[in-house]
Amino acid sequence: MKSKxxxxxxxxxxxxxxxxxxxxxGILNVTPDSFSDGGLFADRDSAVAHGIKMxxxxxxxxxxxxxxxxxxAVDVNVTEEINRVVPVVEKxxxxxxxxxxxxxxxxxxxxxxxxxxACIVNDVSAMTxxxxxxxxxxxxxAGAVLMHMIETPATMQAxxxxxxxxxxxxDYLEKRVDDLVAAxxxxxxxxxxxxxGFGKTVEHNISLLAAIDVLTDxxxxxxxxxxxxxxxxKITGCQVDKRLPxxxxxxxxxxxxxxxxxxxxxxxxxxQAAQIAAALAQQRN
Length: 285
Description:
By secondary structure, the chain is of the alpha/beta class. Helix content is 42%, strand content 15%.
């Protein structure tokens, strides 16, 4: 079968090109309880400063999230999430003009962030949690990340089971893209994410990472987030703040297999690892 791999992504009035290597999406959690950096950037000024730091280190996109999606996380009400996210997006965009993504499942939060300057919506529910998300993304012609997750963050790790995790995740994401295109969204704005750690065991995560090229051949840009994830800790025995080497190893494999956008905490190190992996991948091709 001929590969359908793509090398661009439409996000509002911008077309992001990763033909020469993947884009780095820096994680900016403005939450008190995210699994790795909860509370570190909970106020606007420290969050914006960290966003600028990541841009200076080579981030192409800053992904701002105001609700933790770690295993067991509980919902944040829409007003609180807007109050956390929108001032950061607004100030960061005003000061830098950066490409900004908003990590949210709520249409109202997404709309306010897009109004403030964001150009991407990163929805871990793949626009199933809030049906109003489709019209918001369509109205702004925003880029969108559709992630695979079973159940909700509060319950997803209770007992995840699959007959064939690679096939099932791939089929779900492919159908989700088709359904959203049928609902009126532009296929060129949609990226897919296998949801590493979201309703998966260590074995499920490893199977998905080893087969990322199955997803990259489906015709949409592929976003992968492996940074500091618990599967690295379970394999290596390392605590969350010691997982950079494992994160970079998994990241390099994803780049070699065609991932287009890498969602990371450690921008400078991830950028360098991705550049080397991309150069090796180009040589192989």
